[in-house]
Amino acid sequence: MLQVKKTDALDPDFIFLVKKLDEDLAVRDGDDHDFYDQFNKIDQLKYTMVGYVGGLPVACGAIKAFDEDTMEVKRMYVNVEARGQGYASRILSALEEWAKELKYSKCILETGRKQPEAIALYKKNNYLITENYGQYKGIGNSVCFEKALL
Q1: Are 80 and 46 in contact (CB under 8 A)?
Q2: What's the whole-model pTM score?
Q3: How many Cβ atoms sit within 10 Å of the Cβ of residue 123?
Q4: Parts of the chain with a pLDDT under 70
């Protein structure tokens, strides 16, 4: 069973998982990795989560204020060995609940076309594809999503 912990970007388990995420993204994104990497620094993240199974960190995610009503979902990752267990959906749901507790009404996010698992995850969790926002406008490899928090 996944145990979820609210934490921040200084958490060593969060940092460990984000390093694994970045290694995976460097391969998937190839030459585009440096462009995306500049928007994924964790030093500005105040709201992060780590999921544990048997005391081991296996999943993570974060939310970051985008505007007064919207949180941006960032740094979603599940260890390869732990995939297919619903852990990403659990982390995502917990992040949405946290955003609601903080009085935000919407979540947005960006993922890459070379991440079909992520695209499927967000669609499964009722995120709707929207126009690319912010720094992702005009970027063909980016897929942006949004979800109203009810």
Answers
A1: no
A2: 0.91
A3: 12
A4: 28-41
